[in-house]
Amino acid sequence: MKKLFLFFLFIFSLSIHSQGLKTKGKLIVDKNDKEVLLRGYAPGGWLVMEGYIMQSAGLAGPQHEIREKLIQLMGSEKTDEFFQKWRDNNFTKRDVDSLATWGFNSIRIPMHYNLFTLPIQDEPESGKDTWLDTGFEIIDKVLEWSLAHNMYVILDLHAAPGGQGKNADISDYDDTKPSLWESDENKRKTVALWTKIAERYKDNEWIGGYDLINETNWP
After folding, report:
1. Do 125 and 176 meet the contact criterion of CB atoms below 8 Å apart?
2. Backbone angles phi, psi at 137, to 5 degrees
3. SS3 at position 135
4. For residues 180 and 136, is the Cβ–Cβ distance under 8 A?
5. Quick one: CA dihedral 42, 180, 112, 174, positive or negative?
6. Phi, psi of 26 (to 5 degrees)
7. What is the pLDDT along the chain (219 residues), one digit of tens a residue?
8. What CA–CA distance (Å, rounded) separates 15 from 194?
9. Please, which of 20, 126, 135, 210 could form a disulfide with 205 given CB 3.0 to 4.6 Å?
10. pTM, rounded to two decimals
């Protein structure tokens, strides 16, 4: 846990010195020391399906349960196709253009780790990370859409490896598998994921910040 804490301090220091925003006393300022008041929007349900947002609570709350219900209904192949179409169409450039018109200047992207890397149970070699292009390509697209409007993008790890919160709808926690807090491998993978993200986007001024682990509601 100490190593995880020290790593997050490192990421924080990297972000405030390399990205377009930083703190100045109690203010958030841009690279020109001009105060920035963040007016943000988060496309909830886009990359992490949450039962209370999807109005599926009672039938299926966390995303893995929603996926299981869809597989029962139409099989794995059609379910994969559905999730792909959902990601392609639920939040698009047109939405970013609209947000800019309405006065928003930032977008907080709730991310699921499984768009970037495999669950520890599915890794072909324990202790190693298989990297997936899907999540990185999505971030790249949002940054491209936002650049045209000088909008900041805040990256939010909403569902960390293993799940970080007992509120499973939010974190996609599966109580039949080890959580983030109960698995050294999930902790290691979380650090590896943020290292990968930080390395990729450290020089992009429109990364407004990192929400390292969302809502850690754990007893």
Report:
1. no
2. -65, -35
3. helix
4. no
5. negative
6. -95, 5
7. 666 655 555 555 544 445 789 999 999 999 999 999 999 999 999 999 999 999 998 899 999 999 999 999 999 999 999 999 999 999 999 999 999 999 999 999 999 999 999 999 999 999 999 999 999 999 999 999 999 999 999 999 999 999 999 999 999 999 999 999 999 999 999 999 999 999 999 999 999 999 999 999 998
8. 11
9. 20
10. 0.90
Tell me how far apart the alpha carbons of residues 71 and 76 are, in angstroms, rounded to a whole number: 5
Residue with the two structure tokens 């139409």: 74
Q: Encoding tokens for residue 168?
A: 């499973």
What single DSSP character describes residue 22?
E
Domains and CATH numbers, the chain: 2-49+94-211 (3.20.20.80)
Chain-centre distance for alpha carbon 85: 19
Q: Measured between alpha carbons, how far is 178 from 184 in angstroms, rounded to an integer?
A: 10
